[in-house]
Design brief:
- The chain is of the alpha/beta class.
- It has helices at 50-57, 80-86, 104-114, 121-134, 140-143, 153-165, 183-200, 211-217, 235-240, 245-253, and strands spanning 2-17, 20-34, 39-43, 65-72, 87-90, 171-175, 203-208, 220-225, 228-234, 278-281, 286-289.
- The protein has a domain at 2-92 and 169-289: P-loop containing nucleotide triphosphate hydrolases (Rossmann fold).
- 32% of the residues lie in helices and 26% in strands.
- Strand 6, helix 7 and strand 7 (203-208) form a beta-alpha-beta unit.
- The longest helix is centred in the middle third of the chain and has 18 residues, at 183-200.
- The structure holds adenosine-5'-triphosphate (ATP) and magnesium ion.
């Protein structure tokens, strides 16, 4: 099985403001670990750096500094082709992530061929049908020849999940995989991800704004605020006993079935004043330094 260790990850973007260029630190010394059979939720508001981390993990961006270490159980490092095969991403938008000109079969057969998972056309077709069945698109032979526009959003996202798993993914990065779907079908897609994770013992990074699903579908929660991790721990501990001011704010804003109607804080909070220099680590049971000392910091992401 494959694990991922992210150490001291930093990503700076260069932003043009008029004639000048300034640096924006989108990800600020983030540490993260993904292990087989466990789901880590990465939560945080818009602009906090979640997708940047996902892009670095899937080699769509290069980090400014820090490392992403992917290893097998015996400690062997996973490189290049194997990395690309085993670390897969499910994107937020199922409408943009599939090519309208190609059939569903093509979308799943392509990674099988690229990563040489099958020996011939008949085997590829057989595997495509198996993958469609695994994501509950049945009867598979009815879905295989269709084009993406003939499917619903939820069905397209199932195709995207099948495509990610087809090459033999061990690590799945799901960047807000259900936020563009109708509320009524979100749970079905998340339950599917949960089942596949258990069946294949996948290491999953589940990126979301939604604390309720983060708690339900994840073993751990990592809270990101303006590029820095401000709280981490087992899901229940982070949700039921939040320590950081920002996590408390998120928890307060999340709908609570026991307190219907309570969706916002009574006192408006000055978000810019929230400190992101400290992180509460529930595993260690203590506050630790987040990011770098403020003297070294450049402009941080978010607002
Ligand atoms: N290619 C880029 N060039 C410059 N700045 C960027 C680039 N990509 C992201 N950023 C900036 O980096 C910060 C983090 O962006 P990111 O997309 O990681 O946020 P996010 O947490 O995924 O937000 P959302 O919840 O809205 O998806 C933002 O301030 C964003 O504007
Ligand atoms: Mg994002």
């Amino acid at each position: 099985m494959t694990s991922v260790r992210v150490t001291d990850l930093v990503k700076d973007y260069s932003i043009r403001t008029g004639l000048k260029r300034t640096r924006l630190r989108a990800v600020d010394h983030v540490n993260l670990e993904l292990v087989p059979g466990r789901t880590v939720a990465l939560v945080g508001e818009s602009g906090s750096g979640k997708s940047t981390i996902a892009k670095i993990l899937t080699h769509m961006e290069t980090p400014t500094s820090g490392s992403v270490d992917v290893r097998l159980d015996d400690g062997t490092a996973v490189h290049k082709a194997r990395y690309r095969r085993e670390v897969q991403m499910v994107f937020q938008d199922p409408f943009a992530s599939l090519n309208p000109f190609h059939s569903i079969e093509h979308h799943i057969a392509r990674p099988l061929r690229i990563h040489k998972r099958t020996a011939n056309a008949a085997e590829t077709r057989q595997r495509v049908l198996e993958m469609l069945e695994r994501v509950n698109l049945t009867p598979a032979s009815n879905f295989a020849p269709r084009r993406p526009h003939e499917l619903s959003g939820g069905q397209r996202q199932r195709v995207a999940i099948a495509r990610a798993l087809a090459p033999g993914a061990q690590v799945l990065i799901a960047d807000e995989p259900v936020s563009m779907l109708d509320v009524s079908i979100r749970l079905g897609v998340l339950n599917l991800l949960g089942r596949l994770q258990r069946e294949d013992s996948l290491a999953v990074l589940y990126i979301t704004h939604d604390l309720a699903t983060a708690r339900h579908f994840s073993d751990e929660i990592t809270v990101l605020y303006r590029g820095r991790v401000v709280e981490r721990g087992p899901s229940d501990a982070v949700i039921l006993d939040p320590h950081h001011e920002y996590t408390k704010l998120l928890a307060l804003a999340a709908p609570d079935p026991e307190r219907p109607g309570r969706v916002t804080s009574a006192d408006p909070v000055d978000r810019a004043a929230i400190d992101n220099s400290r992180c509460y680590d529930h595993f260690a049971g203590e506050w630790v330094e987040a990011g770098v000392p403020s003297g070294d910091a450049v402009g941080t992401a978010g607002r």
